[in-house]
Design goal:
Elements (H helix, E strand, L loop, with lengths): L1 H29 L3 H7 L3 E3 L2 H12 L8 E8 L5 E7 L2 H11 L5 E5 L1 H9 L3 H13 L12 E5 L9 E8 L4 E8 L1
Antiparallel strand pairs: 1-2, 2-3, 3-7, 4-5, 5-6, 6-7
Length: 184
């Protein structure tokens, strides 16, 4: 009789373990963590909003400002993970982005409407890859033709590893920030 109770207890414990494991797998399938996107997705995809801040921190080593509206991002994992982020913010958020991303060796320049039009025609480097990603994923994070002028910030390609490279563009007229970054 004692052996029967022991076997039943073992079967109940195994059943509970299987149920809990199933719930965990179902949850992770619906809400994969950032490491899943980094390690197992080499194709591009739009990131869930909850993962955009951690992904940007992972790739650039910098945080989002406190106030972000319309936050969206396209991400590509793999060996050299990349991200393209778009968000609206207030003047404090713009000031934070300028301070945070203008570090040692970074360069910045203001691009007026004429310069942006010329860059658009020649395939502006920052938006070219993001434009392809938008097409692949059927999402719209930006319309380059609607951007009139803004501040561009580029990171320096410093020696050593890992290298975090980024391009930031701050739209003057809409307080919209675009960040394109890669972690090598």
């Amino acid at each position: 009789m004692r052996e029967c109770k022991w076997v039943i207890s073992l079967l109940v414990a195994a059943a509970i373990l299987v149920i809990l494991l199933g719930i965990a797998v179902a949850y992770l399938h619906e809400h994969p963590p950032l490491w899943y996107y980094v390690q197992f997705t080499t194709s591009t995809r739009e990131l869930p909003t909850r993962l955009i801040g951690p992904a940007l921190r992972y790739i650039t080593g910098r945080e989002l400002p406190e106030k972000t509206g319309g936050l969206r991002a396209i991400f590509q994992g793999g060996r050299d993970p990349r991200i393209f982020v778009r968000f609206d913010t207030d003047t404090e958020g713009i000031a934070y982005v300028k301070r945070s991303f203008t570090g040692p060796g970074a360069s910045s320049k203001h691009l007026d409407a004429d310069t942006l039009k010329r860059l658009t025609l020649s395939g502006y480097r920052m938006f070219y890859l993001a434009s392809q990603w938008q097409d692949e994923n059927g999402v719209c994070l930006f319309d380059q033709m609607s951007i009139e002028s803004g501040l561009e910030i580029n990171s320096a390609a410093g020696p050593g590893a890992p290298q975090r490279r980024y391009h930031v563009f701050i739209d003057d007229h809409r307080n919209t920030v675009y960040i394109s970054a890669v972690f090598r």
